[in-house]
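Why AAA family ATPase? Reviewers of the renewal asked for a concrete example.
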Amino acid sequence: MQRILIIGNSGSGKSWLGECLSESLELPYIGLDKVFWEAGGLQIKRDEADVYKRLQRIKVSEKWVVEGVFGKLITPFCDVASFLIFLDLPWKDCREGLLSRGTVSEKLSDPAAAKKGFNELLQWASEYNSRKTKTSHSYHNELFEKFCGKKVRLQSREEINEFCEVISTNKTLN
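Here is what the prediction returned.
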């Protein structure tokens, strides 16, 4: 079984790394934002029962790369993940990542709503180190410290790029 879980703040590069690992290791990639939010951006939450069913289907699969920021969604994967990656980047790097990516809601028909949503995301992500919820640095760090399997903490874009390059070359996490 190869189950890779990636955690970190918004803009840290979870999706980029997840896609890199998925392609290099030929594993299905699942971004938990797509499980939690309805299609079309980060505007409408899915029904909780639907989210739970989707999470269970993913969790029991033998192979996956799952990434997310929401502790409520990622915690159940910690029991079954074979490898945990914590993207522990400074806020300035996450902010740059968000700004360079832009809003994922830009396909909405209302550009003003997309801009408002993106500004709210920037504000929310900037509070990652001070929040005390399951979407915080302290909670992600706790998950990382308690994880008993293989794990790595990457703290810069350079480390993330190097990690991805090594995996792409070797086609394995070992």
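The mean pLDDT is 89. This is the kind of structural detail the renewal will allow us to pursue systematically.
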